[in-house]
Predict the 3D structure of the following.
Amino acid sequence: MNITIYDFNVDNVNQFSPFSVNHASFELKVGLFSNFERIKLFCLKNNIEIDQIYLIVRKEIEELIKEKYPECIVNPPSDFNKGKEFEGNIVYDFSKNKNNISLCYLWDIFTYSAEFFLNDIAEYKFNAISSFPSATKFFETIHKKFDLATLVNEKDIIINEDSDIKAGVVIDAENAPIIIGKNVVVDIGALIQGPVFIDDNAYIAPGAKIRPSTYIGKYCKVGGEVSCSIINDYSNKVHDGFLGHSFIGEWVNIGAGTNNSNLKNDYSNIKFNFGDGKGFIDTQKQFLGAFIGDYSRFGISTMLNTGTHIGIGSNVFGAGYQNRLISSFSWGKENRVNFEKFIETCKKMKQRRNLIMSNAEFEFLKAIYNKNL
């Protein structure tokens, strides 16, 4: 059977900004899996054999999605056989233990991530076992002893192969599980409190405090205190500073001593501005930090207020609290980044990870930059 997955519609795309600037709805990760992965798992668990996957996305991100999902057909001719249809902003329950959840705003991820995380662990273990020569070898690996570290409630801790847990680390799964992916280094004296997921090839700095409901992507470098936040792949926050109830895009670099507020002094609901001309809206959330778009960078000791929206490609620095709405490609509080220098920096960042910037991504960034002139 064919399946068709739809991106955000025009009515709600801005409600997921800055993520939605250069990503499709089905790329959102809630718990341990992206919505795209969940849909495939949903089909597998419901005996739906997939012949072809069609992705319907906005024209401006079409080439980016084609590059990321080469096995799929993106924006096919109108007469194609749709088969079973899925909405990309719905979190599908492939385990049949709970109902599907429709995401209305980006901050809804914080509401459901911990819940789905607990539900996803069985599937994660199954996939992990499949990659080992035997189930025995898998369980020997995840329960490997780390004599110089403290593991609390070891039965709820998964540490994958080739990961290194240094002296003085405390991994506390007393209240909820912790998963540490492959080739992760948790350096001396770090504290991790579940639920937490640290994906493959990440680095946790000495003395870091990784608090509950934190999800750290592949190749990230993270230090300081992080609580109830999502840090997507290839982003760095390796120095001291607090990050709470925040969503960090890919290829973001957060300078030393940067802090964000996630709670107002009067405990009132936090208001948020997506920059779509509708002004500030009541999030109905008491805790909410910063939403940061891909490729944004922060100078040392930057201060971010509750409910801050930062677009893609911004360079944020300067004394005092930053503006709560920062447009894409902002330089400081009043200027714009130089596009050529921005691209040069992006290429250097990728070269450090043995990657290159594709022509599709370059053309997309150029178009977005010119659109915002």
Summary: The first helix runs from residue 19 to 22.
